Each structure stands twice: as structure tokens, then as C-alpha cells.
Amino acid sequence: MTSAPPERIYLDHAATTPLDPRVLEAMMPYLTTAWGNPSSLYAEAQDARRGLDSARATIAGILGCRPNDLIFTAGGSESDNLALRGAAWAARRAGRGDHIITSAIEHHAVLHTTERLEQAGYRVTYLGVDGEGFIDISELQDAVGDDTILVSVMYVNNEAGTVEPLAEAVRAVKEKNRKTVFHTDAVQAAGILDLDVDSLGVDLLSLAAHKFYGPKGVGALYVRPRTPLFPQQLGGAQEKNRRAGTENVAGVFGMAASLQLAYDEFDSRTAHYRDLRDRLLFGVPERVPNVHVTGPQPSSAHPEALEGRAANNASFCFEYIEGEPILIALDLAGVACSSGSACTTGSLEPSHVLTAMGVPEDLARGSMRLTVGASNTRDQIEYFLETLPGIVSRLRSLSPTWPERTRS
Amino acid sequence: MTSAPPERIYLDHAATTPLDPRVLEAMMPYLTTAWGNPSSLYAEAQDARRGLDSARATIAGILGCRPNDLIFTAGGSESDNLALRGAAWAARRAGRGDHIITSAIEHHAVLHTTERLEQAGYRVTYLGVDGEGFIDISELQDAVGDDTILVSVMYVNNEAGTVEPLAEAVRAVKEKNRKTVFHTDAVQAAGILDLDVDSLGVDLLSLAAHKFYGPKGVGALYVRPRTPLFPQQLGGAQEKNRRAGTENVAGVFGMAASLQLAYDEFDSRTAHYRDLRDRLLFGVPERVPNVHVTGPQPSSAHPEALEGRAANNASFCFEYIEGEPILIALDLAGVACSSGSACTTGSLEPSHVLTAMGVPEDLARGSMRLTVGASNTRDQIEYFLETLPGIVSRLRSLSPTWPERTRS
């Protein structure tokens, strides 16, 4: 017997998160009274400038960097584009080489940018990953040469939830070539993992506020002092000449407030995510036949060992059915989830992440990503687990490839 | 006798404008309930998608274009950067040439981008302007050759308020080379002048919401169908693959709401601006000696003929004093204004706009820009006109170059 859903159940927090009402409240002064242009000199502008400064200090506190090491952007994609192009062009200008290393499972904001850089004459190595999505540190180190100017490896994969061994990767790269700049797309890691840039050792780190209960349209790029970086968006002298354009003061302040809340409440939030995630990781295969967990594999013997998987991510591939019909049926049943990245919705190609992990194309088309968040409850997860099997078996009964159908 | 200011008097609406409370109200659903990722498939996402679509239709209605001709960006600087680089790289790829024409008085978002394009091998012609800031149409037409891929001329100059003869300029360019792409930075024109892209004839047009009582951190680029444009921010498939990144739904919706209000109330707003502007244009030189109006000159005989000047802009240069001390003294007296572009505040160089107009360097350093807005009143302007002379004469009495000082 399936209980009725008490409300909509949102299980796609990797796509975006609701704006925390406390964050909106923190933003309100900058949407009402403190609306001046922070570059101006007069009193109205100083309120806005103080808001920017305070936001910069807050985020720097969480990243363990200096406030001036942060460049505010319009989001994760801009941060990634700025990091890669900015570092690549600066290094070429300095005659330092033209080799870039990244992984095959990066977000398209990284991969489409490295493709554009290839067109401009850069040489790019795409690291493979193992069946759980992990890069191989020795493969990475072997790939680094004297002309390797940039490495970009994401912190948490947005589809499979794989947590890359970032600190180890940075050490391996710097051991081989200490001048190589290391960028990480940490968009999916904020609020889930420690962001201390010195522990990680990275030179560039991308963030997007709307992934951690902040507003859409705002992000940041951390830049380690003395990292050569050509500005990309040109114009006014904002962000110390590193990113032109009147600052999105309310958005930046909201980003800082939401990041602060994420780390103030870090332990309770991530414990909550982990609890719900594990119910999904173990519960789905218990209730549905012919399903595979994608990304780092849970072990019922050692569930606590799942350190290599983001606390909020449970992802699967179903045999014999495609992901999209499952999502549509779940949506009708009150559950929001996705088959992969929101940025590639509607694409007919199977996920580049899953295929890089060796998931066969047919199976990769049956993907479902669940990413839990602050508002989810055990009851919601229970309802989901009760609802899913019926949906899957109904869809399979319509599938020409489903063995039980062909047998009947 | 000087009356006390009833409140702060903000005369820098070209730097930024307050967010209209009606616009904030329109944005609120997208900051609270409709927070889904518009690229996703489920119900939560559809509310956000509908908000984006509705905003696109609203703006398209005002520009007289199709909704799909608009690309949402993070602001005017991104729009300018995207327009110039996107058009330049697309034209080079098509083998169409490498010549670009712009004017010497553009915003730095244009000029710093053309400088970067020069480094990449493009040839750039910088058109001069006359004493009032107008480009010369025949000089423009003479500069267009078979290899001219792009012309970028702003609609309204942000410092001098000059309204360039855009429709005429487009005709002159297209007559000579119909393949040349014409971009205009219309950031200062929105809410002040007609934005119909077909009357203007432009192929690309940049907007920034925070200049017309919308939110900071959001803008748009109009792109005429079949205009070759390489995307700049790469990643997801948003904006039909022309600008990656999760959309700033609340910001975009706010931009549309504020643009709609600006054109719903166009006649009354611009009449109000013009009334206050003329009081300043005529009143300041009446009360202060040795002051020059910069930009298009008013004529007391035909004030109604001032069509070539933005309705909200009154700008001046004072002999014998620098602009910054005036602004500081005015700030203390309750008035917010600027010496030029907010984006170049703190620069020690005299304005490139004023020097291009032939204003001598010393005089250009004594610049003051007043840009009126919806909340300004005749009483505020009267207070300003009463307050200014005392400030100017006090500062001049301290100036070593002031003749009355050296005479005493």
C-alpha cells in the first residue's frame, strides 16, 4: 500500500536549491535601501560597498583565504570559463606552454571551454576514470609535463557524486611541475565538503550560490595569490580589474549568507543528507530488480566507508528502461528528480559521465539522479521508495527489451 | 538663504538606480516559491521556465523583436563583451575580415574589449567625436570597407548624455557593406529613448537592468536573426546554446518588469526628467561662473530642440577645481552625484570621453555629471542649485590657480 505524498518531494538539489528564507532576508537591504553603485563615492554607495566587503570577508573565512583572493562572478559557469581561459591565456602569454589536463567527467562549463581552447591551439589531455568515477593519481602525474600549464579536476561529480581525491591530485601535480595551475570546479562540493583552499592546495576554485540555498546568477572564483590569470569580462575596474561590471550586491551578499549557514550547520546538514542518501542507495536496489548504483559503491558491511561519495547523492541506472519516462512518472507522483545534469536536459546523448565510467550506452540511458537536501524527510524517502517499484515495473512492462515481457 | 535638504538627493541615476518596489514585488515569487532550475523537466522547474519565457516576451515586445532574439546575461558589460567578441570571432572564422570600427567615447566594456581584439590581430578604427560628442556619419561611412566586420557605436554616452544618430549611422554602414554587423551599447538609453530594433536597424543591442530601476547583475543582448555570433560563456545548453549557466530567473523577471514599467510610464517619466535636466542645464551656469556644459549644448532660445541629449543628463566642467572635491562636498551636503562613469571612479586620468570631445585636460578634471531620476523633485533641484555655488566658490578660494585668489 502506497501512502499519499504529503507535498511535493524535491530530490534534485544538485540542479538547484530553494533560496533559504534567512538568506533572502539577509539580501533584502540590498534590494531596498542599500542600492547604490559600490564603485561610487557617496554615502549611498558606501552601504553597498560595505555589503560587498562583508560578503567577501565571510566567504574568505570559509575558504581560508584573503578577501581579495575572491572574484565575484555570475555563477559557476562563468567561474569555470574565467578560470580556464584566464589561466590558459596568461600562461601562453608568459611562454610557459600550452598543455592542459582535465578529466572526462567534468561539467560542460569545463569541457566545452577546453574544446574551445583546443581550437585555439592548446593541447588537452582528458583523464579517464574508473568504474566509480575516480581519476587515477598516477595517470594524472604521468600526464604532467614541463609544458603543462593547467589542470582542472572537479571536486564532486555532479551526476555520480564521486568525490575526487583532490588534495592528493594537487600534490601529485605540483611534485611534477610546481608552476602548473590547479583549478577545481567545486560547485557540487559547497556545503557538502570542506572548502579550505590550503588543505586542498588548489589555485583556482569555482562556486555557484544557487547550489547551496543561495540566489541564482551569482558565483565566485577563488584565485591563489600570484596565480597568473587574464581577466575575461572587460570594462570597468571592478574586482580589482579582474572582472568588469557593476556588482550584483544583493546576490553576492546572499551567496555569503548562504555559504555561512551551510558551514554553520555543516555537521547536522551533512549527517541528515547522509542518512537519507543511504536509505536511497540501499533501498532502491532492495525494492527494484535490475538496477545499478552509479558512482562510488555502497557496501552494507561498511556504509560509513562511503567517504568517496557526496553526502547528498544517490544515483542509479535501470536496465530495460530510459531515464526520462521514469522522471515524468515520478513527477506525476509528486517527486522531482533528474536523469543527470540539468544543463543537459533534453540531450539525446547518454551522459558523458556515465559512459566515461564504463556504463554501457543502453544502461546509461536509464539513469536517475537523486540529490537530497535540507527540507527532505525520512517520510518523503519512504514514500519515494514505496512509489518507485510500481513505476519501474509499469514502464518495463511496456518495454520491448524487458525479458519478462518477451517471455510472456 | 539655503534651505535644509528634506532627504538625500540622488543625482547619479546613470551609475545605478534603486530597485523599483513594484519590480521587487514582481521578483518575489522567483525568490520564494518558483525557485526550480528552468532547464529541468518537473513541475517546480516549469514555474521558473514560464517566468523566463514571460520575461523574454515582455522585453521582445518593447524591442520589437522575437523572444528568441534575446540572450540573457549578467549585465551590460557581459552583453558588450559577448557582442564584440562573439561577432568578431564568428566573422573571422567565416573569413569575412578583421576590421572593427567603434568610437573613442564608448564605455570601457567596449573599448577594453576592442583593445583585447587588437592584441588578437583585429584592426580597430576609433572614430573621433565633435565638441558635443557626436560621431560624424561620413567619417564613419568612409571608414567602412569590405573587411569591416563590426561597428559598435553607443546609443547614449554615459558621461556627456550625447544621443548618437544611430539609425542614420546604421544606414550609412549598411549602404557601404550590408554584411557589417552593427552593435550598440544601449545601456544608458533604456527608459530614455525608443528601443525598437527595427527602427534603429541595429543587429546587436546591449541592456543592463540596474540602469532602469531593475536589479543589479542581469542584462540582455538582442541578436538580430542570422547575425553570426560565437557564444562566449560555454557550458550547458541554456539560451539556445548561446550563453551557458543556470538562468538568474528572479533577475531576468525583474529586468522585464522594470523595462515594462519604464515604457508604460515613458512619456511622464521622460517629461519629468527633461524638466529637471533643463533646470540644471540652465540653472548651474546662471549661478556659477566659469562653468561649461559638456555634451550637447542647450539653447535658451530653443530648449525643446535638445533632442540630441539624453533626457536625464546634465553634465558640466568647472574651471579651476577638480571634480572629486566637489562631489565630496556635495555628498556632505546630502547630494549624490559623480564626476563621470562609476566604473572608472578613482582613476587619476581625465575622462576619455571629455578629452575625445576636445575638453582640455585641466578642465576635464573638473567634471560633474548629474543624472536625474523618477524620485527627484523640483525642490531637490532647487536645493541643489542653492547649495552648489557656495561649495564651488569655497573650493576655488583654496585653489592656487583661481584668478580671484591670485589677484587678492
Word description of this protein:
The structure is a homodimer of 408-residue chains. The two termini of chain A are 26 Å apart. The mean pLDDT of chain A is 94. In chain A, the strands form three sheets. In chain A, strands 2-8-7-6-5-3-4 form a seven-stranded mixed beta sheet, sandwiched between helices. A three-stranded antiparallel beta sheet of chain A has the order 9-10-12. The first copy, chain A, has helices at residues 21-31, 43-63, 76-93, 108-119, 137-143, 166-176, 197-200, 238-241, 249-264, 266-287, 323-332, 352-356, 361-364, 378-397, 403-407; strands at 9-10, 70-73, 99-103, 123-127, 148-152, 181-185, 204-208, 219-223, 291-293, 313-318, 335-336, 367-371. Chain A is globular, with a radius of gyration of 22 Å. The first copy, chain A, has two domains: 9-18 and 266-407, Aspartate Aminotransferase, domain 1 (Alpha-Beta Complex), CATH 3.90.1150; 21-264, Type I PLP-dependent aspartate aminotransferase-like (Major domain) (Aspartate Aminotransferase, domain 2, 3-Layer(aba) Sandwich), CATH 3.40.640.10. Chain A is α/β, with parallel strands linked by helices and 408 residues long. In chain A, helix 1 runs antiparallel to helix 9, helix 3 (76-93) packs parallel to helix 4 and helix 11 crosses helix 14. The longest helix of chain A has 22 residues, at 266-287. Chain A contains 15 helices and twelve strands. The interface between A and B is large, with 75 and 75 residues.
